[in-house]
């Protein structure tokens, strides 16, 4: 499996970023569900600490992922897609990238404004960029919760699109992001006569 992307498929580095971040977002959602149900206390605080540490890791991974994307070719969308489908794909991917930054930033800045230091897995403290401002902190936490809902909605769309590509359109879009999977169906699906449909 090549490390770098080419015009037909994602390389191993892009795939690793994609699926590692998927696993961490899933962990974030599970942690949030757990600590929101718990009474305030040392156990909830420990889970929130892990949530914050994972979240800051996602921020760094998202930045590295974007840098890698800019340094590599990006696979073309199948030629069979209609213009509104291309628009939806670009819009939803752009929104997902924006949320991969906005979620951690609102969490981090909200904690900072409320005066809670963020320690990365209890190993070191992450800088505290804001002075204490409770109103701002609460507004940032509210934004964090609203963005979590937006992320959930766009993910439903994103996963539905992946399923549709694989099982309905039967193209290579899911295969080319799947580790160790060869690309084989693209050529037949991108035949010029289908581009008009
Ligand atoms: C991509 C990364 C992140 C995701 C997907 C995420 C997701 C979530 C979700 C789903 C909730 C529950 C929202 C609700 O129903 O009220 C939540 C709450 C929270 N998150 Fe995050 N989070 C991320 C990063 C962070 C970071 C980096 C921090 C802090 C450094 C953080 C701090 C918090 C806190 C303190 C709460 C509780 C807020 C409250 O009490 O209203 N999160 N997060
Ligand atoms: C937290 C969950 C997820 C996030 C944040 C996410 C984010 C993204 C982003 C930003 C891209 C665009 C890549 C780029 O253009 O650089 C992408 C591509 C992709 N994602 Fe996800 N994704 C998630 C979950 C999933 C899941 C569960 C699936 C499969 C069921 C999936 C399948 C794909 C596929 C197939 C592509 C490649 C699209 C293409 O080649 O044009 N993703 N994802």
Structure characteristics:
single chain; 197 residues; mainly alpha; Fumarate Reductase Cytochrome B subunit; two-stranded antiparallel sheet; 3% strand; disordered C terminus; binds protoporphyrin IX containing FE
Give a concise summary.
This protein has 197 residues and is mostly helical.
How does this model look, in words?
This protein is mainly alpha-helical. It has a single domain, classed as Fumarate Reductase Cytochrome B subunit (Up-down Bundle). It contains five helices and two strands, in the order αααββαα. It has helices at 12-37, 42-70, 83-113, 134-169, 186-189, and strands at residues 118-120, 124-126. Strands 1-2 form a two-stranded antiparallel sheet. Strand 1 (118-120) and strand 2 form a beta hairpin. Helix 1 (12-37) runs antiparallel to helix 2 (42-70), helix 2 crosses helix 3 (83-113) and helix 3 runs antiparallel to helix 4. The longest helix has 36 residues, at 134-169. It is elongated, with a radius of gyration of 20 Å. The model is unreliable at 186-197 (pLDDT under 50). Bound molecules: protoporphyrin IX containing FE (2 copies).
Bound molecules: protoporphyrin IX containing FE
Question: What's the arrangement of strands in the largest beta sheet?
Answer: 1-2
- For the terminal residues, how far apart are their CA atoms? 34 Å
Going by CATH, the architecture would be: Up-down Bundle
Largest sheet: 2 strands, antiparallel
């Amino acid at each position: 499996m090549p490390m770098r992307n080419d015009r037909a498929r994602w390389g191993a580095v892009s795939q690793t970023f994609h699926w590692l971040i998927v696993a961490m977002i899933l962990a974030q959602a599970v942690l949030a569900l757990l600590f929101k149900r718990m009474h305030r206390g040392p156990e909830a605080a420990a889970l929130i600490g892990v949530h914050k540490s994972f979240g800051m890791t996602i921020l760094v991974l998202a930045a590295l992922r974007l840098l890698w994307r800019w340094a590599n070719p990006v696979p073309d969308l199948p030629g069979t897609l209609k213009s509104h489908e291309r628009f939806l794909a670009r819009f939803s991917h752009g929104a997902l990238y924006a949320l991969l930054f906005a979620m951690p930033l609102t969490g981090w800045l909200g904690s900072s404004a409320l005066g809670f230091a963020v320690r990365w897995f209890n190993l070191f403290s992450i800088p505290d960029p804001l002075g204490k401002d409770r109103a701002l902190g609460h507004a940032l936490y509210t934004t964090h919760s609203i963005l979590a809902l937006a992320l959930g909605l766009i993910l439903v769309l994103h996963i539905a699109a992946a399923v549709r590509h694989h099982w309905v359109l039967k193209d290579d879009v899911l295969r080319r992001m799947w580790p160790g999977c060869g690309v084989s169906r693209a050529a037949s699906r991108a035949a010029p006569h289908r581009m008009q449909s």
